[in-house]
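Hi W.,

Here's what went into the run:
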Amino acid sequence: MIWVRGRWLPERLYPFGVGGFDPSGLVLVQTEDQTDALAVAEDALRDGTVPFVVLEVTAPISLTAGRRLQLAAKAGGTTGICLTPEGMGSNAAETRWHCVPVFDPQESTLQCWTLTKNKSGTLGAWHVRWDQEARRIAVVSPARE
Amino acid sequence: MFDGIKRRVVSLWFPRLASDRILRARPVDGPFVLTFSQNNANRVYCLNEAAEARGLYRGMSFSDARAFCPDLSSRPADPPADQRFLSLLRRWATRWCPWVGFDGEDGLVLDITGAAHLFGGETAMTDAMGAHLATAGLSVRIGLGNTRGASWAKAHFGSDAILEELPVAALRLEPETVTALKRMGLCSIGQLAAAPRAPLARRFGPGLMLRLDQALGHQPEQISPAPEPPHYAVRMTLPDPIGLEADVMAGTERLLDRLCATLKDNQTGARMLCLTLRRVDQEAQSVELRLARPLRDPARILPLFQRGVAEVDAGFGIDQLRLEAVQVEPMPPEQVTHVNDVGGRPPGRLDDLITRIGTRIGLENVLRFLPADSHIPERSFIIAPAAYSEPQGNWVASRPRPIILFPPEPIAATGDRPPAQFRWRRMALTTGRVTGPERIAPEWWLDDPNWRSGLRDYWRVETRQGRRLWMFYTPQNPGWFVHGEFP
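Here's what came out:
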């Protein structure tokens, strides 16, 4: 897995808190600006060596850039995830998700995942929780009011 | 001699190697010494002729030397640099004969058997050596003899003398042995050779007789030529200039094959390569390639050059290519096993990807998490360049940890339990559920400015708005901070 992010961002990934995968297999790439980040992400997606590429962006991605990433991912058979600020997603993306944590008195890993864009299907919203033992995501039906 | 061929050995002694090396670069008029700090005293390490004429000598204290000679100029000595200089001289000396070895710290020994006639005889050869070295600003004394011992003796104690007339000190003996021999009345080598051997051997041990026999040629003595360091550079000169990218890559491929063969012979791998392309107008452009792993596989290195070569401006054409492995690392042959082959992919593809990313943004920006031995959250891991580390670590936390850490952000709250309502990043948040506290104490043996506020009680705060925050309270210096966020 490759994680591409800007060097200037103050937040840091905390490897002990990453539950879903093994952080020792993570390669972190720090770039000077977003152009570099996009180029690195495209390289990594096209190469297909790593199954996942995560790209953090801070500025809107142009349609051309988004389409290039899309084609690179298709060529490499790689899944690319682009973490965008609210409302800055690229129209070239296959799907776009909006993930927020949800407070739940019983459960402390509940999240709400909303599919806001889907090129090849319908939209929807799911409440999911992280199952630590099985190391997978479980869909729960939202509690009725 | 033993093999029937008369050996001829030249010994070069540089009596003022260290000071000559400095004075070559910046000449000084008048007395000059190099100083060396030994046993808390500055001593004279090496000196020039003018200083010797004023009565200074090696090993005297520097303050005494300055008292003798107020206009003395000095520099600190650098023995490792002197050794490097001597190895340069050794390399230079291979122009006279192929068999050149070091002789102590300030001498060279050359086996010129069968090489002298190429330079017009032995005398002409030694004269040429002296002239070359004098032009280079080095004082040298040259001894020529049938054995290594004899040539050493003549270099140090007069080149024109007959060996038997030289003092016994010319046999490379310990100073105590020399004194004892003189007290016995044996002053010259001839006298020593004529004396009965058995009593001398009984008194001084076999070393004395060995040195005598080596000087006289009754015992052999080796001259070990220092090994040539491997040279990791190849070049190709073209009859006609080329300009197409594919042509340059084809040339690079041929160079790589030769370079990788050298690397393989020496069991090393290239870490950093430099391809220099010389154009017809004598302009040179270089393509640097830093690799994520030591490599010597041409098929894997060649595609990595593609990006750099594409950026080169060929101008009117390129007529010389030179490829050098600037940095090499040992790389013993590896057993090929199926374990290396992860998931059916050829091994090392991630390294190639890291190298490709590294050529774009610099290899130091491609990083990897490594565990560190600390319970402080910020210091429990380090971020190291992926090219110079191996993936490792057991990343299992005993307690829930946030996925994102940021520099602590203060919030307005009081009390040692998390506030029911607070504002963070311009959001009004209401506490829903809290877990904690977990106390983490600072490492007193390290002065970390972020931990000057003392102990921290960490709480996991789940807000009714959804955000799950990792907050801490500092009881010794009351205040609340947000430090991280859970998914």
